[in-house]
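Methods: holo model generation. Sequences were used as deposited, without trimming of termini or removal of tags, and paired with ligand SMILES retrieved from the corresponding compound records. Each pair was processed once, and we did not select among multiple samples. The sequence and zinc ion SMILES for this entry were:
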Amino acid sequence: MQTLYVELGDRRYPIFIGSKLNAQELLEPYIHGHQVMVVTNTTVAPLYLDHYVAALEASGKTVHTCILSDGEKYKDIEHLNLIFDALLEAGFNRDCTVLALGGGVIGDMAGFASASFQRGVYFVQVPTTLLSQVDSSVGGKTGINHPLGKNMIGAFQQPQVVLADMSQLSTLPPRELSAGLAEVIKYALLGDVEFLDWLEQHMEALVAGDETVLATAVYKSCAHKARIVASDEKEQGDRALLNLGHTFGHAIESYLGYGEWLHGEAVATGMVMAADLSFRMGWISESDLERTKKIILRANLPIVCPKIPLEEFLAYMAHDKKVLNGQLRLVLMKKLGQAVITRDFDVELMKQVIVANQH
Amino acid sequence: MQTLYVELGDRRYPIFIGSKLNAQELLEPYIHGHQVMVVTNTTVAPLYLDHYVAALEASGKTVHTCILSDGEKYKDIEHLNLIFDALLEAGFNRDCTVLALGGGVIGDMAGFASASFQRGVYFVQVPTTLLSQVDSSVGGKTGINHPLGKNMIGAFQQPQVVLADMSQLSTLPPRELSAGLAEVIKYALLGDVEFLDWLEQHMEALVAGDETVLATAVYKSCAHKARIVASDEKEQGDRALLNLGHTFGHAIESYLGYGEWLHGEAVATGMVMAADLSFRMGWISESDLERTKKIILRANLPIVCPKIPLEEFLAYMAHDKKVLNGQLRLVLMKKLGQAVITRDFDVELMKQVIVANQH
Ligand SMILES: NC(=O)c1ccc[n+]([C@@H]2O[C@H](COP(=O)([O-])OP(=O)(O)OC[C@H]3O[C@@H](n4cnc5c(N)ncnc54)[C@H](O)[C@@H]3O)[C@@H](O)[C@H]2O)c1
Ligand SMILES: NC(=O)c1ccc[n+]([C@@H]2O[C@H](COP(=O)([O-])OP(=O)(O)OC[C@H]3O[C@@H](n4cnc5c(N)ncnc54)[C@H](O)[C@@H]3O)[C@@H](O)[C@H]2O)c1
Ligand SMILES: [Zn+2]
Ligand SMILES: [Zn+2]
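and the model returned the structure below.
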C-alpha cells in the first residue's frame, strides 16, 4: 500500500492506494462520530456495499445506506435531495460522516451533500472507477448538474480520507477503465515525460487490470494533480494545465451529446488535437505527435472523432467556461511532457487540426 | 450613517446602518464583476426592487431579478432551484454577485444559492426586516428547510457588504417589527445591562419606528452578535448564548406549528421562562424578572404562551438540536444582562416555570 498526503494545512488528508485494502483499519481513525451514511448506486451496491458496511460496523459505527440510480443523468438536485432525505430519516446530526462509494458521479453528489447537510459534515471518498481515483480524489470539487450546464452547482469539500482500492477496478467495464487511462496519460503529457516512458512500458499491464501497475499509475496521477492544485488553489493559473485536451474534448462531448462518448474518450481525442496543433506550431516533433497517438491508441482510446462541422466545433470550443472571458486559451505542449496555457497559436492551424483529426 | 466591520480576516466586511442610504455609492465598491442577480419576493419587490435595480444599473451593472413567493414555507430546495434557473438562464458566470433583498427567508436562500452556484460567487445582503438586520447580517449562516427539519441544508457564506436601511422598516407590519425587537432585547438580556437601560428609555420610539433610534439598536445588536460569533466561530461555546429564550421558544413554535407564532414572539416568551427559572434558582431578583417581562411587553410581545401539556413541552425542548447530544443545556441568567450556558438547574423548577408561564 502507498500513501499520498494532500497537503492542505489543517485539512491535510491521506489517499491510501493499494489492493484489497483493510477498510476497517484504514477508515476507522478518520471517521468522526458514530453515524455513517454510505452513498452508492445500484451498480456498485451489489458488488461492494456489504464489504464497507461490515467494515464500518466492525468499528462500532451506526451505518445507513442511500442507493441512487446509476448514471450522469441522475446527478441532479432531485437525486441530491434523496441523500438529504436519507440523512434526516436516519436522524443524523452534525457529527456524522457521508461516505461516497462509487465513481465520480457518486463522489460529486455525496460530497456536495456532505458539504451542505447541516452546513457541513464529514466526508470520506471510496472511488471505485479509475477516473474518480485519479481525478476527483484530489481538488475538493463536488457538485451536481443543471439542465443548463454541467457541474454548475456545488461546493469545495475536502474528504477526511480517500481509499483507492485497485481490486475494485476488476469489475469495471473495459471502456470505463480506458476512459480513466486518458486522464492518467494526460498527467504524463502535461508534465512528466518520464511517466510517459513508464506508461509506454506498462500500458499492456494497465489495460489488463494489473493491480500493482495500476496502483503506481494512480499514485503518480494523484501526486501530479495534488502538486498542480496546491500551486494554484484559486484556479487562476497552472490549474488550467489540467485541461489539456479538454477544450477540444468538450466540443466533441457537446456535439455528440453527453453520454455518447465517455468523457475520457473525448479527452483522448482532444489531447491528440492539442498535440497536433503543438506539432504544427513547431513546438513538438512529428515523432512526439506519433508517440502521443500511439499511447492513446494502446489504451484503447479513440484518436479521431466523428465528422463535426467546423463552425459547430468552434462554437462549442468557445462555450467552454475556461474561455468565456475574452479570447480562446488552449493548453498546448511546448515540449512533449511540458504543457503551457497560451493564447499564442495560429487559429488557421487550429482549424486545420480539427478537420484533420476527424473520420 | 454608522459602519460596523465584521472582523473575519480576509473576509472582513462592513455593515452600513442608517436611513435613506445611498445604495449606489455604498454598494458599488463591493460588487465584483458586472452581473448582479437581485433575489427578492413578491411582497418586497413592489416596494424596493426598482430602487436597487436603478442604483446597480447606475453603476453600470447588468441586473437580473428573481422574485420568489413570500413565505417560510417556500424556503425549500425547489425554490432554491429557481434561483439557479434564473442565474443560468441569464448566462451568469463565476464572476457574478447575488444580492438578497428581503427578510431572513430571502437572505438565507439567496446566500445559499450564492455559496453553491459555480461553487461560490459573491453575495450582498440588503436585509429589509428588523429581524434579518439584527440577526442574519452577522454569522454567515445560510440555508433552506427540509420537511424533516428547519435550516437543515446550507452553507456558511459571508457577504461582501450588508446594507441595513431603517427607512425600509416603515412598511414592515408592526408584528414583524416587534418580532425583530425580541432579538434586540435578547442581546441586552444576555450580555449588556446598559443596553437594557437604553432600551427601556427608547422602547416607545422603537415601536413607533423612529429611524434614528432603530439604527442605534441595530448597530448595538450586530456588534454584540459579531463579538460573540468571533469569539466562537465553531459554535462550541459562547455562541450558544445567542440561544437565550430559544430552547423554550422552540418548544412553543413546534407545538403551535411553525407560522402560528412568529419566531420572535416565541423567543420573547421563551426569554421570560429563562428569566423566571433564573429567578427561581436564586440568580436574579424578582425585580429583575419584572424588568424582563416589562420590556418584552412594551415591545408588544407575548410573555405567556397558550396552554401546552407539560410532557409535550418537554419533549419538544429535548428535540432542540442544541441539546441532542446528551443532557439538556439551557441559557439562563446568572445576573440580569449576564447569561450562561448551563446544565446546573433544577429540573423541577424548570417544570414549574413552564406551567406558570402559560395562559
Ligand atoms: N470532482 C472532481 O474533481 C471530478 C473530476 C473528474 C470527474 N468528475 C465527475 O465524475 C463523473 C464521471 O466519473 P466516472 O467516470 O467515475 O463515472 P461514473 O461515476 O458514472 O462511473 C462510471 C460507471 O461505472 C460504474 N462503476 C463504478 N465503479 C464500478 C466498479 N468498481 N465496478 C463496476 N462498475 C463500476 C458506475 O456505476 C457507472 O455506471 C462526472 O460526473 C464528472 O463530472 C469530477
Ligand atoms: N441566517 C441567519 O443567521 C438567520 C438568523 C435568524 C433568522 N434566520 C431566518 O430568517 C427567517 C426569518 O426572517 P424574517 O423574520 O425576516 O422573515 P421573512 O423573511 O419571512 O420576512 C417577514 C415578512 O416581512 C415581509 N417583508 C420583508 N421586508 C419587508 C419590508 N421592508 N416591508 C414590508 N414587508 C416586508 C416579508 O415578505 C415577509 O412576509 C427564518 O427563515 C430564519 O430561519 C436566519
Ligand atoms: Zn477530465
Ligand atoms: Zn432567533
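The first strand of chain B starts at residue 2 and ends at 6.
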